[in-house]
Write a structure and sequence with these properties.
With 126 residues, this protein is mainly alpha-helical. The chain is built from 7 helices and no strands. The longest helix has 21 residues.
Length: 126
Amino acid sequence: MITSTQIPAPTVTDWGLYGTMNEQAEAAWPLAMTAISDATGQPLESVRTFLDSRHGRHFADDVQNGLYTGATLADAINAATQRWMGWTIGRSTSKQYGIPKGMPYLTGFVIHCEITELSIEESLAA
């Protein structure tokens, strides 16, 4: 668990995980950042990019489903994280996004979001 590292703030608060979690966004953000970083082995900056994206919104929808069934916020985030890590990238998703087939879904989309953001930044700097 990440304890000595500062959790980056969301760059988007009306979309992604933060916007979807509504009144629970402030509590959900550091829990989701830590759970996803720990599960995927990806840096917090990459996780932030994922959670700020439309994929982060879908992750938040999964967390909301857990809350609806009575799970605590932490348990709902952990369950969603494990579920997304249990799914693997299929052939169609691999072709569409360029993520290697068979990679854990959550890891693949965290990395995909980071690469996409880097590509945009490079295009703007050129």
